[in-house]
Amino acid sequence: MNEESFYQFSTLTVLALLAAFYGGTYLLTLLIKKKKENTDAFMVSNHQIGFGLGAASMTATWIWAASFYGAATSGYTYGISGPLHYGLWGALMILFIYPFGKRFRELAPNAHTLGELIHARHGSSSQLILASSNILGSIISLMVNFTASGALVSVLSPLSFQAGVVIAGVGVLSYTLWSGFRASVLTDFAQLMAMMAVAILIIPAVLFALGGPSTLSDGMSLLTPEQANLFSMDAILKQGAPFFVAVLAYAIGNQTISQRLFAVREDHIKPTFITATIGYGAIVIGLGMIGLMALMTGMEPIDGDMNNLIPQMVSMYLSPVFIGLFFILVIGSLSSTADSDLSAMSAIVMADVYGKNIAKNKPDPTKMLLIGRLTMIVATLIGVILASFSMDILIMLVFVGALWGAIVFPVIASCFWNRVTNMAFTSAVVAGLLMFCIARFEMLPMVSAVAVLFELLAAVGGGVVLGLMAFGFCGRRVGLMVAAISAVGLAFLCVGFLRDYTVLLASLMAYGVSTIVCVVISLLSSSEFDFAQIDQNVINYDPAKPVAEA
Question: What is the domain extent for residue 411?
Fold first, then answer.
């Protein structure tokens, strides 16, 4: 890479910036550290996180390293509509947990993970499917964030890529290890305030360094008709629609969101998630504008690597002071997500793996805390090792996203419909994932009857996505009507068309197949579940603590 095009700090300066950031964050955790940490506090802060901290933590967690590079790439690739698609659908990912999250908290107000609720509903096999998908997703997320740190450090300093990876891993672990989720939430708040302040400074600074709004007006001539179109079909089909499909998958399947759902006081859930939705969308759309500015000024990313766009823009047009602020901005964003990943994984292993399946509902609280901290250490080590190899993460990300897509309907149905069985849950997830892999990796030729079948299954999946969203906010009857009408309408639109958009086709199939299998097997069963059993079967790991306030 032509690194001479970038401004570089000295090794001492970069180390000083990193030491200041991680050292300051560590000192903050010392102020909140308790002499005797209990398991509930370590996992979900005793279910007592307030509105401000909850909203800030949710926003900071989802503004991760990929948000910077992905949003900028979107603006550069798709033009005016690119940042809007990236930020809007990502924001809705947060919002759509709210209506279903209310139900999750009603059924299990003192749970720590969604897996605990599913265990109480179905047993170990369904719970472990959910836990495994989350552990895999969090490991990949750690790898992505540590990789981003390594790339940033190697570009803006003489230090190596591996050095940047190790520094980020050790730095995040240092302040998350002792206080768990509480440290993650409080540092997220501080990091978000810093990120917002820096973003407010950097984005306008880049704009005016380029010559102000007039320069962008002149740059409209450099855009293709599709890039200049606010409703670009290219952007909608290649980015907007896949993101839209992924919204529910990430909202329901990801423990980093679920953990905050179970940590926030029940009466603060709605304002917390609405505020986080607005905050995330505004910041990420703003970051995407940097990529759009690069496009409108005719800039070519160095070595053709889109990930170089933001460092390139910042280093070429801003002073070293602003470059230093940008450095802290990216480090803060990746750290806020990485500490959330560590906290989420520790909660899953503590509650879902050890508490339910190893200790058989009789865990030792001291041993539980030790297991949680060991999980963080092992996860950090794995994330650092994988990131050091600069692995191609696309296939793994797609795979994890598909698994989360395949579990959405079974999870939601299990919490609202008393006919869903463990067999229905596990069979639906396995079938959805299998069909996704067949379609995504084109194990069967996408022609003739096979293509038509896959497109019809995808149409069902599209109806399911829209129906679930309608169900969440408008109730069961409206949800069923929207699902049915949407599926029929999409069937006419998809046949002969969707086969050319493999990622979207495969993702929708995961929803469609898992839904069909779950419904059919559930209807074949005559058993009916008593939802009151769920709360009774969720363990209070610290009996001495008061029950969470309603």
Answer: 392-528
Residue 546 covered by a domain: no
pLDDT, position 547? 45
Both 241 and 317 in one domain: the answer is yes
Question: Backbone dihedral region of 63: left (phi > 0), alpha (psi from -120 to 50 degrees) or beta?
Answer: beta
**Do residues 266 and 313 share a domain?**
yes
Side chain identity at residue 158, one-letter code:
P
Amino acid at 134: N
Domain endpoint, select from 374, 391, 408: 391
Same domain, 475 and 451: yes
- Nearest Cα residue to 311 out of 303, 446, 125: 303
520 membership: H or E segment, kind and range: helix 502-524
Residues 386 and 512 in one domain: no
Query: What CA–CA distance (Å, rounded) separates 68 from 49?
Result: 28
Q: How many domains would you assign to the chain?
A: 2
Tens of pLDDT along 176-226? Answer: 886 666 666 777 777 677 777 777 888 888 888 888 788 778 888 888 888
**Statement to judge: residues 380 and 511 lie in one domain:** no
Please list, in sequence order, all residues whose beta carbon lies within 8 angstroms of the beta carbon of residue 355, skipping any fewer than 6 positions away: 116, 361, 363, 368, 539, 541
| Residue 49, strand partner residues | 264
Model's pTM, two decimal places?
Answer: 0.82
| 227/209 Cα distance (integer angstroms) | 23
Q: Cα-flanking dihedrals φ and ψ of residue 264, to 5°?
A: -75, 140
For 470-515, write each residue's pLDDT tens digit.
Answer: 999 899 999 999 999 999 999 999 999 889 888 889 889 999 999 9
The whole-angstrom separation of Cα 496 and Cα 376 is 48
